[in-house]
Amino acid sequence: MSCGTGIKLGILSAIFPIVLFACTNPSPNPNPNPNPNNNDANRYEITPDMTPTSSASLLLGHVETGFLGLGKTYIGILRVDGKYLKEDYRPPLLLTPGTHTILFRVFDDPVAAYVCTIFKYEKGKTYIVRFTQPHFEGTPLWLEDNTTGQVVSQKFEGKMFSESLFSGPLVTMMLAHQIPDCPAAAGSK
Fold first, then answer.
1. Which of 112, 143, 146 is nearest to 126 (CA)?
2. pLDDT exceeds cutoff 90 at 44
3. Whole-prediction pTM
4. Residue 30 or residue 171, greater confidence
5. DSSP state of 81
6. In a 10 Å sphere around its CB, with 0-12 CB exposed, 13-18 middle and 19+ buried, how is residue 179 labelled?
7. So what's the pLDDT on residue 29?
8. From 79's CA, which of 15, 31, 40, 109 has a CA 20 to 30 Å away?
9. Long-range contacts: 138-145, Cβ < 8 Å, 24+?
10. d(CA 104, CA 77)
11. What is the model's pLDDT at position 147?
12. 84 - beta bridge partners?
């Protein structure tokens, strides 16, 4: 082996672990929440007086994608009226009747769509969120009446970002972005 080959192998063996670290992430998080403190006043809270008959209910639909759980499409609610949900939230989401702004995140590695919706929810009704598999070209999201299956909202388009689950810290920093703004509707709590 010549001296030049030894130097090349030495450089390669030094660079390889760095590249491997930058391109892998052992703990992917499909629904990032930058502020996990559940006692924060800026949290959307379901109060004890809210019931399915006194409120509107919101269910999350799904899209059949992937094979054996790989490549599965996820949807999550990031904010309601500008407030984060509590970590222990379980569907259906109960909403006071009236207009609400909800920020959804639809994810299918490596595409994340952030979709801001503004809709007037009616007391006692159950709505389901429907969407297509995320693509960089666009990801529409809409609401249907869960009882009738009728589309009750416009189709909302998302802002698309690249968020690979298996990106390491270096790649994640390079692809970093702010969560898109989704201001609360006028008159919401």
1. 146
2. no
3. 0.71
4. 171
5. T
6. middle
7. 43
8. 109
9. 139/106, 139/111, 139/113, 139/115, 141/104, 141/106, 141/113, 141/115, 141/117, 143/117, 143/119, 144/61
10. 5
11. 93
12. 43, 79
Q: What is the domain partition of the chain in residue ranges?
A: 53-189
Residue 173 has a pLDDT of 63
Q: What are phi and psi of 20, to 5 degrees?
A: -60, -45
Helical segments of the chain, H only:
3-23, 169-175
Residue with token string 């503004």: 118
* Other beta carbons within 10 Å of 102: 26
Going from the C-alpha of 173 to that of each of 66, 72, 81, 137, 163, the distances in angstroms are 27, 24, 28, 23, 10
Mean pLDDT over residues 53-76, rounded?
Answer: 76
Q: Tokens for 161? A: 């970002």
* Residue 33, number of CB atoms within 10 A of its CB: 14
